[in-house]
Amino acid sequence: MHAERYAARIAQARERIRAALAERSVPSLAVAVAKDGEVIWEEGFGWADRENRIPATEHTLYSLASISKPITATAAMILAERGRLDLDKPINDYLGAAKLTAHAGRAEEATVRRVANHTAGLPLHYQFFYADEPYAPPPMEETIRRYGNLVTAPGERYQYSNLGYGVLGYVVERLSDRSLAEFLRTEVFLPLGMVRSSLNVAPGLEPYQAIRYGSDGVRYPNYDFDHPGASAVYASAHDLLRFGMFHLKQRLPDQKAILSEAAIDAMQDPRDNVNGTSGYAFGWGINTDDHGYVTVGHSGGMGGVNTLLRLIPSERLAIVALANACSRLPFDFAEEATAALLPAYAERRAQRPASGSETEPQKPFAPPRALLGEWQGAVSTYRNDIPVTLTFFRSGDVHAQLGEQLKTLVNEPQAQENAFQGVLMGDIGTEDANRRPYLLHLDLKRRGRVLNGALMAITHLEKDQGGAPGRRVGNALAHWIELKKR
Fold first, then answer.
1. In which residue ranges of the chain is CATH 3.40.710.10 found?
2. What's the CATH number for 369-485?
3. Is 335 exposed, middle or buried (0-12, 13-18, 19+ CB in 10 A)?
4. Which CATH architecture has domain 63-351?
5. For 13-38, what is each residue's pLDDT tens digit?
6. Which residue of 96, 114, 172, 357 shows the fewest CB atoms closer than 10 Å?
7. By 3-state DSSP, what share of the chain in percent is helix, strand and coil, each rounded to 5?
8. Which residue from 234, 216, 214 is spatially nearest to 224, judged by alpha carbons?
9. What's the whole-model pTM score?
């Protein structure tokens, strides 16, 4: 029995977790580990709800954040195996009247698969709605109308996008004639024996949830998203381990085969690599780490949440770590657990040189010759188009002007090959963006005498404005921008 074999190491890890919770002021951590098809450890530590003195257990529901993505992807793959969904057809074929708009490239090349592996051209996006504020998520059709813009050509670039998984969840709803919550419950959670799992906190499960806490120890109000398929799943460590074991092809006796082994393999095939050693497949991040192991998994992070699901298929190993606060503890635990269970991993980890804390001083920005001069165009919001001028000077200064607003300096300018990024102040005049203070982030690509891409309104709160780290995540709302050189 693996549990007996690793009992001493588990006891050591248990004490380190307890000490870390106190040292780092983390409310709770729930962990679960399986090796060779056997669950060898499941346990919760600390408080799921500090105020009501409810302890965390392996059956406590935690907000998973982005670990929702492989769960939504599993739902989509179920429909693909049933012949309802073709992964290589345009996702617009399944969206009804709400279509993605291609400002760059061709919309028909934004396939379901590319949406799922973040290469369809959708930009950065997140939008939070808090229970103590007078805002509610719009229907997905409206979110697509406002933000469903392809700002790079499909297949051109990897860019992580919550909106893509919001759209993928919407496709599951349209094809199944069921809500995403109901489809996940009946087609994923119950067949896999995940009885403490749901989209958001399902009625009746409220007493079992882990409350999300900010870094100041104050509990967050409940919050929702306009991209539930990307971020809104809750699950216990026990349940998430069962999900991971299924995707390791270690189906437990009480689990149904909701996917074929070929479909499981397809979900772990990163056709569009990020770089030479990493990629994003159909809902899973794939990484060949510096220890030589190929890992399949996903992490999650947002206000009051850090989570990790790590699978190492070659070693038949699954590790879950869930925290109800922003903390590196889940990642540190996963590293220790992997080293404890895999001697070769421990050896390579010990040999790895410590990363230096010093960073190279940033060199002054020197704009490429092709950028010098004035560029004029507009940013398109769901309200209107706003004229924009960008001017690049030999000195390295970059000036920007939106409409009749004051000219402003573009800070943090960067240019690599034909790409340009920078941050500026300005008002794009939409109700969504103006719910919170924000800065505008440029992410542009030069295509001859044209600069185009995304202008993103990203919430920026100083500490004296209530924006202490971990307290309240805001929004990242991207808009199409195109400029031509005068």
1. 63-351
2. 2.40.128
3. middle
4. 3-Layer(aba) Sandwich (3.40)
5. 999 999 999 999 999 999 999 999 99
6. 357
7. 30, 30, 40
8. 234
9. 0.94
